[in-house]
Design the sequence.
């Protein structure tokens, strides 16, 4: 098995494509099950955020795995596979490991260094664990991916400014509302993870009065209480829109919350930050007089012009080191079935010799037979210990995959291909 990551992000697709690809939380289990039911896909983890949709998979073949995953994504999104291919990026083997580590460290984010992706990756991993779509390879990859992300944030200053998609959006909003947002009235629509982040960010910026609404009023009420904001009922949305300067939309709705007709009735200057995918603001609302809409496409365009933080060099070094460590683990693990087969062969030889000895010396008592058997086993284990430890060490080094093949050849070991494939992927192989 080998690692394959396939996805679309703000770098390769506009928000119209991303919202069709977006995978709502209730749909994740079913999609994971469809993925692992494909002929070439053995394991799968799905990540879906406001600016990326990615599949991490363990596949038995590059082209087969690529085709299987693309077909599932095409079926889910309704985008023909031929059209979808133009929006996807693909990483295989070592490149897939590097990509996952860079994502967790915030290097591939729209806002470099943002930490929200760590929580999103953790949620994706938990979802895969719950439906048992992550096997040994993806369990190890995701655990190390989360650890690398934490290390990058703990050991460097990449997130020292506390940047996030919300802060980036507020930077753009300030161009319409003035440099200082303090004292501006705002409304957050949605009380989920992104809504909570928006409330926290707006509170730190001194925005207020701050209102929160959600279809579930209880969630809005709890969030408002935590930040000293005001919870308003969802059926009061039209009235509240006429009283605020800034709106942040962050719901999980599959249909627009702010339609053109609703925004036309506002009758005043309004800045709307649409951080949802699918979009919370209807596309036909663009261009309404006095309504300034900032969505993921706007953010992607603006952030590309920003210089990369100096701290990214240190994070890239961490990623490079951790990728090599992970590849070392994979190379070392690849030899495990061969070492197990060698030990099994040794046990078989001991057992065969014991049977011959017993046939020749039937006068031996059970105690004597046990003593001889234990002695032979100890001798064999001691003889094998140092070589097997050393071969594991050698196998973990670059080019170490040759040692498993050599052991199989030298001792004429029969290690089924299925056992080898399930034990560890062949990272670094050619597509």
Sequence:
């Amino acid at each position: 098995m080998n690692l394959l990551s396939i996805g679309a992000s703000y770098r390769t697709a506009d928000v119209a494509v991303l919202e069709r690809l977006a995978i709502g939380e209730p749909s994740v289990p079913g999609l994971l099950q469809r993925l692992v039911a494909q002929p070439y896909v053995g394991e799968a983890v799905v990540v879906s955020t406001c600016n990326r949709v990615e599949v991490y998979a363990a596949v038995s073949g590059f082209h087969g795995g690529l085709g299987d995953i693309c077909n599932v994504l095409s079926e889910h999104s309704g985008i023909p596979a031929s059209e979808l291919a133009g929006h996807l990026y693909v990483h295989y083997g070592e490149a897939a490991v590097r990509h996952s580590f860079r994502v967790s460290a915030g290097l591939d984010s729209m806002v470099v260094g943002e930490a929200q992706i760590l929580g999103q990756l953790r949620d994706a991993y938990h979802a895969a664990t719950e439906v048992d779509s992550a096997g040994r390879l993806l369990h190890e990859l995701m655990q190390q991916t989360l650890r690398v992300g934490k290390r990058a944030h703990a050991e460097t200053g990449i997130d020292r400014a506390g940047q996030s998609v919300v802060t980036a959006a507020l930077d753009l909003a300030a161009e319409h509302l003035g440099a200082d947002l303090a004292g501006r009235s705002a409304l957050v629509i949605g009380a989920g993870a992104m809504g909570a982040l928006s409330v926290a960010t707006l509170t730190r910026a001194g925005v207020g009065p701050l209102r929160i609404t959600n279809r579930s009023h209880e969630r809005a009420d709890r969030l408002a209480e935590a930040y000293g904001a005001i919870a308003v009922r969802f059926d009061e949305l039209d009235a509240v829109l006429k009283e605020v300067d800034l709106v942040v939309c962050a719901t999980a709705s599959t249909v627009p919350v702010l339609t053109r007709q609703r925004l036309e009735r506002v009758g005043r200057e309004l800045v709307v930050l649409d951080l949802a995918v699918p979009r919370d603001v209807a596309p036909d609302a663009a261009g309404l007089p006095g309504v300034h809409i900032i969505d993921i496409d706007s953010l992607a365009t603006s952030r590309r012009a920003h210089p990369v933080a100096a701290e990214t060099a240190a994070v890239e070094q961490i990623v490079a080191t951790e990728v090599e460590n992970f590849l070392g683990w994979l190379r070392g693990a690849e030899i495990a079935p061969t070492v197990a087969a060698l030990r099994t062969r040794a046990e078989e030889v001991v057992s065969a010799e014991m049977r011959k000895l017993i046939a020749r010396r039937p006068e031996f008592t059970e105690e004597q037979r046990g003593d001889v058997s234990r002695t032979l086993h100890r001798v064999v284990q001691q003889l094998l210990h140092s070589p097997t430890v050393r071969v594991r060490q050698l196998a973990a080094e670059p080019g170490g995959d040759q040692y498993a093949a050599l052991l199989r050849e030298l001792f004429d070991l029969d290690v089924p291909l299925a056992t080898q494939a399930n034990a560890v992927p062949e990272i670094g192989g050619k597509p």
